[in-house]
TrEMBL record:
Major enzyme class: transferase
UniProt name for this protein: Uracil phosphoribosyltransferase
The protein's role, per its UniProt record: Catalyzes the conversion of uracil and 5-phospho-alpha-D-ribose 1-diphosphate (PRPP) to UMP and diphosphate.
Highest taxon listed in the record's lineage: Bacteria
Phosphoribosyltransferase domain residues: 6-208
Gene3D superfamilies: 3.40.50.2020
Coiled coil feature spans: none
Family: Belongs to the UPRTase family.
Pfam families linked: UPRTase (PF14681)
């Protein structure tokens, strides 16, 4: 089964409280989501491979570590995943960014792709899928399947809040995908909102409500 990593760092938990607050406006919400994404990205990149290199300090030549150049890709699920891109890119600016746009068909309730643009060498990259809210898991499942169909084999999922239902569905179907979250909330309501959650992350990021 894929690992579930709940990042209980005090800074992340404090920022989570701020974005849960319904009185936090879009400007602050965006800023805090970006900061949290950077902190989550720090945890996700913990296992990046290093190589030993020589470096000349002002005092002498020494051996030191540098990233060994693993190719990474960041894949926000539109639209709310966009809010997490800049924070992660700030840590790993060389990563390529692919976009996956999905909407829920009102009749079948299945996610349907409406826009997908990926790095051409997506199958060679370690991918970080971004979606702040892992609710039913429908979008994450569709995005992961889409990426695997394109040849991707090393995928991590980064969210801010997840429901137990969303985690279960991803873990049941994708045992190779680790999930990173700041919180596992209580449940989904009848409209598939996470409770207590933070409302609609896309609307809160982009001020569309
Ligand atoms: N998407 C959101 O933005 N919020 C939820 O609570 C569930 C899905």
């Amino acid at each position: 089964m894929g690992k579930l990593i709940v990042i209980d760092h005090p800074l992340i938990q404090h920022k989570l409280t701020l974005i849960r607050d319904k009185n936090t406006g879009s400007k602050d919400f965006r800023e805090i989501v970006k900061e949290m994404s950077m902190l989550i990205g720090y945890e996700i990149t913990r296992d990046l491979p290093l190589q030993e290199v020589e470096v000349e300090t002002p005092l002498c030549v020494t051996k030191s570590k540098s990233l060994s150049g693993k190719k990474l890709g960041i894949i926000p699920i539109l639209r709310a995943g966009l809010g997490m891109v800049d924070g992660v890119l700030q840590l790993i600016p060389a990563a390529k960014v692919g976009h996956v746009g999905l909407y829920r068909d009102p009749v079948t309730l299945e996610p349907v792709e409406y826009y997908c643009k990926l790095p051409t060498d997506v199958e060679e990259r370690d991918l970080i899928v971004l979606d702040p809210m892992l609710a039913t898991g429908g979008s994450a499942m569709a995005a992961i399947k889409f990426l695997k169909d394109k040849g991707a084999s090393n995928i991590k999922l980064a969210c801010i809040i997840a429901s137990p239902e969303g985690i279960k569905v991803v873990q049941d179907h994708h045992e190779d995908v680790d999930i990173y979250v700041a919180s596992v909330d209580e449940k989904l309501d009848e409209n598939a909102y996470i409770v207590p959650g933070l409302g609609d992350a896309g609307d809160r990021l982009f001020g569309t409500k």
